[in-house]
């Protein structure tokens, strides 16, 4: 595998996500206009599947929302009652009861609001906990192909940002939409019952409100869309510059990078300011329209009161209703946009969950008990992309305990042979046999357990050295780990680390040299003691002393095991029992070093060009 691809595994997560989650900023009401769900019904159905596990809790929350919305709807009636029945006629004793009832209702409302928020938060946290777990479990079951073809930053952002968006929005929006709807409908009904004329007066501002907000929204949407794009660009630069720091420094491109960043940052600020200024017009505008409604109700109410057709209490309660009516309308429009973003985010999460898993083992797949290590490729054909054959009719036979060197120019297909042996990818045609058994008939886990892989750029986890070696065999004791490290010639350098075996590695072992990382990988492989070994020899970055250690450890590891070595060292190639010379996806020659040299063919030329000087 070319180094770039291998290194991609260690790429850090994107500096920021694809953009801010909706609802985090003044412009949130028009957030992410492009983020519309493609198949809303399906997304809803799948979200419901997660929520349905908490049906009774949900029912409780909705009951509380229902009650508190009803309280909001009836409270203004108490104002009417207080004015008409007690204040105007001067019955102050009764007024005390009404005031008491109002206080009680408002307190109850607050308590219910807290309980419903608490319940909904619990449910959404639990739902997100489950989605996150399912997504991560799915990630572990995905075939290597997905990781080879999808941007890792994208996968990470789905697992973190998108799930976060779902969490935040579901938590806030679902309750808000439900309570807004009830308050809206309830208020409308009560208003109609009290005074149809004043209701009509209140509704007068609604079309104006929709017209104006839509007009502004259309323009802001354009700016927010540009804002998102520029933000994406800016994040891309940050991500690239962090990952490619060394390249930037070596080519002294800091100044150029800074200027590039400033330019985009300036555009982002310009567009962002416009978007925010425009959307900032909405709240005062709403306020103004609200006040208009208030004036219309007061004027019409005053006129009707003078005529004696409505009471002062009705006007007072109507002022309250007018406010109660316009606010949820506004809220519903906001929440609708946010929900759309959340559904789109949920869709992106489900998309990964829908990716096809690594195929199940065949029904009659067997467990490998103890294997001798005979490996045979029989007329194997393989393509990563349909129609582009990468391996063409590859056949070879490795006897137990033999060392097989894979040599050939870059891109020839050496790593691909390894990818097939491990069943990271399945072949198109032909057969791969281990001890005479087709590997498709062997359980994947069992097959992989019998293989040990040491790559040039080994992945180490951000754990202690001890745990990193133990990764090869989880049941190994500390003594066994240390013994393996000694065989791998890693003990000496580990001893000199600040905390010895307890030293915690950072960033995939970035604080170790490449040679040291390889020694740890060798110790790991020694501990797992596989029957078949796959080794990728280091080509560079290792000092001669460490290289000697690595070579020595590899030789010890290879003893008595069938070993495939992507070979770069002349000594390995010379000592191999079988050399497979691969070019352009085909085995062009095979045999021992002497046999191949005598042939004076492809290998001879390769050898002369690479090693003759040495
Ligand atoms: N995941 C992939 N998807 C598509 N094409 C791939 C993939 N991996 C490798 N290839 C292609 O398959 C061919 C063989 O690649 P392979 O990695 O096996 O070469 P290699 O001999 O190991 O090269 P190197 O010595 O440079 O690591 C190349 O043309 C490469 O571009």
Automatic annotation (TrEMBL):
<dbReference type="InterPro" id="IPR003593">
    <property type="entry name" value="AAA+_ATPase"/>
</dbReference>
<dbReference type="InterPro" id="IPR003439">
    <property type="entry name" value="ABC_transporter-like_ATP-bd"/>
</dbReference>
<feature type="transmembrane region" description="Helical">
    <location>
        <begin position="292"/>
        <end position="319"/>
    </location>
</feature>
<feature type="transmembrane region" description="Helical">
    <location>
        <begin position="94"/>
        <end position="115"/>
    </location>
</feature>
<protein>
    <submittedName>
        <fullName>ABC transporter ATP-binding protein/permease</fullName>
    </submittedName>
</protein>
<dbReference type="InterPro" id="IPR036640">
    <property type="entry name" value="ABC1_TM_sf"/>
</dbReference>
<feature type="region of interest" description="Disordered">
    <location>
        <begin position="1"/>
        <end position="37"/>
    </location>
</feature>
<feature type="transmembrane region" description="Helical">
    <location>
        <begin position="188"/>
        <end position="212"/>
    </location>
</feature>
<feature type="domain" description="ABC transmembrane type-1">
    <location>
        <begin position="59"/>
        <end position="341"/>
    </location>
</feature>
<dbReference type="InterPro" id="IPR039421">
    <property type="entry name" value="Type_1_exporter"/>
</dbReference>
<dbReference type="InterPro" id="IPR027417">
    <property type="entry name" value="P-loop_NTPase"/>
</dbReference>
<keyword id="KW-1133">Transmembrane helix</keyword>
<feature type="domain" description="ABC transporter">
    <location>
        <begin position="375"/>
        <end position="609"/>
    </location>
</feature>
<dbReference type="Pfam" id="PF00005">
    <property type="entry name" value="ABC_tran"/>
</dbReference>
<feature type="coiled-coil region">
    <location>
        <begin position="329"/>
        <end position="372"/>
    </location>
</feature>
<feature type="transmembrane region" description="Helical">
    <location>
        <begin position="56"/>
        <end position="79"/>
    </location>
</feature>
<keyword id="KW-0175">Coiled coil</keyword>
<keyword id="KW-0472">Membrane</keyword>
<keyword id="KW-0547">Nucleotide-binding</keyword>
<dbReference type="GO" id="GO:0005524">
    <property type="term" value="F:ATP binding"/>
</dbReference>
<keyword id="KW-0067">ATP-binding</keyword>
<keyword id="KW-0812">Transmembrane</keyword>
<dbReference type="Pfam" id="PF00664">
    <property type="entry name" value="ABC_membrane"/>
</dbReference>
<dbReference type="InterPro" id="IPR017871">
    <property type="entry name" value="ABC_transporter-like_CS"/>
</dbReference>
<feature type="compositionally biased region" description="Pro residues">
    <location>
        <begin position="11"/>
        <end position="23"/>
    </location>
</feature>
<dbReference type="InterPro" id="IPR011527">
    <property type="entry name" value="ABC1_TM_dom"/>
</dbReference>
């Amino acid at each position: 595998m070319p180094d770039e691809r291998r290194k991609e595994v260690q790429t850090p997560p994107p500096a920021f996500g694809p953009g801010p989650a909706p609802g985090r900023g003044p412009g949130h009401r028009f957030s992410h206009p492009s983020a519309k769900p493609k198949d809303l019904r399906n997304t809803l159905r799948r979200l419901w599947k997660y929520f349905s596990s908490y049906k009774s809790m949900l029912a409780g929350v909705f009951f509380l929302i229902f009650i508190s919305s009803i309280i909001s709807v009836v409270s203004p009636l108490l104002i009417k009652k207080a004015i008409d029945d007690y204040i105007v006629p001067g019955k102050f004793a009764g007024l005390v009861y009404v005031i008491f009832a109002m206080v009680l209702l408002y307190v109850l409302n607050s308590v219910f609001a807290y309980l419903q928020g608490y319940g909904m938060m619990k449910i959404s946290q639990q739902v997100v906990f489950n989605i996150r777990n399912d997504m991560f479990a799915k990630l572990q079951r995905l075939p290597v192909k997905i990781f080879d073809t999808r941007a890792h930053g994208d996968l990470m952002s789905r697992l973190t940002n998108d799930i976060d968006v779902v969490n935040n929005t579901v938590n806030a929006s679902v309750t808000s939409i439900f309570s807004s709807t009830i308050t809206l409908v309830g208020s409308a009904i009560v208003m109609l019952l009290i005074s149809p004329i004043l209701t009509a007066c209140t509704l007068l501002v609604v079309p104006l409100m929709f017209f104006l907000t839509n007009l502004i929204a259309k323009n802001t949407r354009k700016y927010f869309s540009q804002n998102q794009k520029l933000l994406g660009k800016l994040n891309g630069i940050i991500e690239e510059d962090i990952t490619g720091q060394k390249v930037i420094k070596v080519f002294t491109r800091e100044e150029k990078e800074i200027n590039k960043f400033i330019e985009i940052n300036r555009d982002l600020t310009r567009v962002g300011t416009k978007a925010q200024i425009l959307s900032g017009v909405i709240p005062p505008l709403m306020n103004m329209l609200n006040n208009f409604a208030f004036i219309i109700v007061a004027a019409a109410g005053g006129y009707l009161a003078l005529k004696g057709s409505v009471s002062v209490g009705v006007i007072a309660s109507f002022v309250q209703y007018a406010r109660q009516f316009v606010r949820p309308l506004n809220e519903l429009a906001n929440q609708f946009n946010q929900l759309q973003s959340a559904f789109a985010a949920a869709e992106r999460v489900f998309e990964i969950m829908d990716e096809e898993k690594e195929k199940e083992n065949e029904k009659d797949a067997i467990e490998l008990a103890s294997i001798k290590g005979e490996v045979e490729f029989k007329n194997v054909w393989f393509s990563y992309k349909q129609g582009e054959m990468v391996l063409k009719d590859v056949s070879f036979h490795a006897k137990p305990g033999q060392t097989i060197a894979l040599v050939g120019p870059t891109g020839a297909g050496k790593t691909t042979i390894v990818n097939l042996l491990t069943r990271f990818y399945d072949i198109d045609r032909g057969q791969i046999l281990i001890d005479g058994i087709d590997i498709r008939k062997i359980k994947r886990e069992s097959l992989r357990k019998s293989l040990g892989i040491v790559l040039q750029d080994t992945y180490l986890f951000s754990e202690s050295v001890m745990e990193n070696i133990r990764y090869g065999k989880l049941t190994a004791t500390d003594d066994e780990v240390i013994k393996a490290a000694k065989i791998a010639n890693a003990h000496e350098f580990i001893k000199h680390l600040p905390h010895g075996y307890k030293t915690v590695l950072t960033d995939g072992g970035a604080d170790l040299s490449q040679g040291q990382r390889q020694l740890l990988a060798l110790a790991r492989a020694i501990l797992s003691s596989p029957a078949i070994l796959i080794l990728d020899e280091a080509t560079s970055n290792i000092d001669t002393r460490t290289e000697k250690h690595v070579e020595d450890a590899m030789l010890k590891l290879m003893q008595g095991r069938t070993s495939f070595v992507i070979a770069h060292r002349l000594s390995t190639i010379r000592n191999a029992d079988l050399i497979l010379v691969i070019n352009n996806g085909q085995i062009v020659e095979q045999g021992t070093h002497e046999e191949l040299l005598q042939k004076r063919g492809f290998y001879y030329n390769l050898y002369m060009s690479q090693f003759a000087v040495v």
